[in-house]
Design brief:
about 55% helix; 5 helices
Amino acid sequence: MMDVSTNPAEWSDDFVAQDPAGAAARAATELGVVVCLKGHVTHIASKDSDGLTEFAVTSPTTWLATAGTGDVLAGIMGAVIATNEPASARELARCAAAAVFVHGRAASIASAGGPIAALDVAEAVPAAVREVLSA
């Protein structure tokens, strides 16, 4: 299994901008990977023998469009995957969706309604995880 994390600017096909959910599903199906297409609404898709799995996670803040925040997401995603040891593409997609959600919460906590840097998001991850676990 593999996770592919990208944003629409990194893909050259016009269909990505017009139908990001469809683009993520198509890439997951054609490449046999889990796709995380980042944006204000992040689309996660995977395809395996159980069928197509899709998630859409809306960011609570637009301040995540900041250099380095994708690296923070990659770190969160790696931690969630390592902790949960997903055995299928569907489980890996769930882990990716959970990581995207935590990333968004951390950004929201860090921003307090204003601009943020990637380090601000990273420093807010423990609070976001506590919040998610206590819900």
